[in-house]
Design a protein that fits this description.
The protein has helices at residues 4-10, 13-25, 29-40, 45-52, 56-75, 83-91, 93-99, 102-118, 122-135, 141-179, 182-201, 205-222, 231-244, 255-268, 272-284, 286-289, 301-311, 315-318, 332-348, 352-365, 372-385. By secondary structure, it is an all-alpha fold.
Length: 386
Amino acid sequence: MLNLKKIISHLDSQVYQSLEENLIKNKADNFLFLLRSYRENNLKDSQIIETLDISSNSLYVLKSRLNDKIQEHLSGGDIHQDKNEVFRLLHSIPEMCQTKPREVSSTFLQKLEKDLMRYDMHNELLVVYSALKKNHLFSEKYFHYSQLYNKHLAFTVSLEKSEELLGNFNRTLGQYDFSRLPRTLENLLFLKKGINDHFALNPSRQIELIRNIMDIQLQVFCNQKGETKSTEELIQDTYKIVQSLPESSPYRSWSAILDYLFFEHYYRIGQTQKAAQYFEKTNANVQHLLLMSPVCLVSQFLVSRICYAQDQKLIDQIKNEPAEYLSDPEDSYTQIMLGIHHATLLYYQGKYKEASARLNSILNVNSFKDYFHINTEIKLMLSYLY
C-alpha cells in the first residue's frame, strides 16, 4: 500500500471535502478521524491507536480500507454498467499523471487496474499499465509493470487470434454444410484444437466464450458429442459467461447468437415448445442477424425458420415479410442461403417461375464443383418447382 498520509495530504481540497462528506454521511467515524488526522498531520499512528482504542493490526486494516475508499472516490462511476465511464477514466489518465502527485495518480491507476481486471477488460488494461510503467520509471516497480504490460499485450494478440480462428471455423463450417466431406470435418476439429491451445495459455472469459461457441456448433450442426457437457448445459454456461461481462463489452451482443443456437438445438431434437420462445427472439433480430456470420453459422436460420414455420403453420406470417436482410455481399455461403430462402418464399407465394429463376441464378453464379450436397439440394428443389 502506498503511503496513505502522503496520498491524503496531496488530495485536492474539492476531492478531500467530497470524501469527508461521504464519510460523515455514512457515519464512518473511525475512517473520518484517520482521514482528518493524516490531512492535518497532527497525530502519530501511536496516538491514533490510543485515541481510537484499537490494536496496531486494526489500524493497518483501517488504513487499508480507507485507501480503498479513496481509490473508489478518485475513480468515480461503475465501469461495469457504464461504457462512457470507462472512456472518461481512460482519457483522464494523462492529465492525472501529469498534474497530480505520484501518490495520487498511482492510487487512481491501481484502482482502475483492479476494476478492469475484474471484468477482463484487457485492451483497456494496456493503457493503465503503460501509464503505471511511466509513473514508476525511476523505481524498482518499473520492471513489474513492464512485465504486466507485456503479458496483457500477449493476451490481446491471443484474443485477436482466437477471434480469427472462430471466423475461419465458421467459414469452414459453411463449407462442411455444403459438402459433408469428412476431411472438412477434420479441419473443423483441428481449428477447435487451436482454440483449446489458446485457452490453455490465456484462460479468460472471452476465449472461453469463443471456445464454447465452437463446441456448441460442432454438437448442433455436425452431430459431434460433447466431451463433458450436454449441448443444453454448454449453452446455459455460455449465457452465464456473457452475462458476467461488463455492459461495455462487445461480447454482450453474442447473447443473440446463443438464442439462435438454443432454437436450433431444441428444434432439431423435437422440443418445439422450448424452441418456440427462442424462435421469437431470433426471428425478431433476423434483419441484421446475418452480419454475425463471423461468430456463428447464423445463415442456417434462413432455412430452419421456414421449416419451423411450415411445421407450426406460420408460413402465412413470414411469406410476405420484407425480404431485405443486412449481410456481407462477399460471404458466399450467406448469399446462397439467402437465394434459397427467397426462392422458397416465392414458392409459397405461388410464384413458381420466379422461384425457379432465383435457383437457376444461384447455380449459374456459383461453382459447386466441391459441394455435391448443396448442389443436389438446389437441383432437387428445381425439379419440384418444374
